[in-house]
Amino acid sequence: MDDEEARTRLLDAAEELFYRHGIQAVGMDRIRTGSGVPLKRLYRIFPAKESLVTAYLERRDRRWTADLREAVTGAPEPVLAVFDWLAAWFSEPDFRGCAFLNAHGELGAAAPPVVHTHKAALHALLAELAPAPGLADQLLILAEGATTVAALNPGPEPAHRAREIAEVLLRAHRPS
């Protein structure tokens, strides 16, 4: 196995374990076991747990953001497509809430900067889609609130409710 394959296996194991059990609950030995990568190589690729956590979140951010962007591109009502995409995500069997909010909740100020850049990127996407200035702030609160509610009670319902509110906001901001 070359270093690229080892890195991928480590990130796959980290993502599954950190997302399911929490960052602080999972040690590097458990990542080693889950990935099948020897501990010496693990530490050569990721010298500290913090570097692995950052790489896991950066990779998740790229994939999550690309998936969401793809879902809204070309949608007849892109803002509402965000909430439709969230409903599908919340319905996935392994849904455990937002990995970035979970990381911030566990690590607080020690959370990697990608936590904040992820949220800023979501806000920027909503600002691109919103038909009026300032609407992105409200849409972000709806999306984040729905995600938090769904983390406690998985399923599409929080996204459906948030979508209904987004429809009201969109109607209020459309020219008459």
Describe, in plain words, how this protein is organized in 3D.
The chain is elongated, with a radius of gyration of 18 Å. By secondary structure, the protein is mostly helical. The longest helix is centred in the middle third of the chain and has 24 residues, at 49-72. Helix content is 74%, strand content 0%.
Helices, strands, pairings?
Blueprint: H1 3-21, H2 28-35, H3 39-45, H4 49-72, H5 78-90, H6 99-107, H7 114-129, H8 135-152, H9 157-172
Helix pairs in contact: 1-2, 1-4, 4-7, 5-8, 5-9, 6-7, 7-8, 8-9
CATH-scheme architecture of the largest domain: Orthogonal Bundle
Average pLDDT rating: 96
Per DSSP, the total helix count is: 9
The main sheet comes to: none
Write down the Rg. Answer: 18 Å
**Helical proportion?**
over 70%
Work out the count of structural domains.
2
- Measured distance between first and last alpha carbons: 62 Å
Low-confidence stretches: none
SSE topology string = HHHHHHHHH
Instruction: Based on Cα principal axes, name the global outline.
Output: elongated
Number of strands: 0
Task: State the CATH topology of the largest domain.
Answer: Tetracycline Repressor, domain 2
**Structural class, from secondary structure content?**
mainly alpha
**Could you name the CATH class of the largest domain?**
Mainly Alpha
Strand content: under 5%
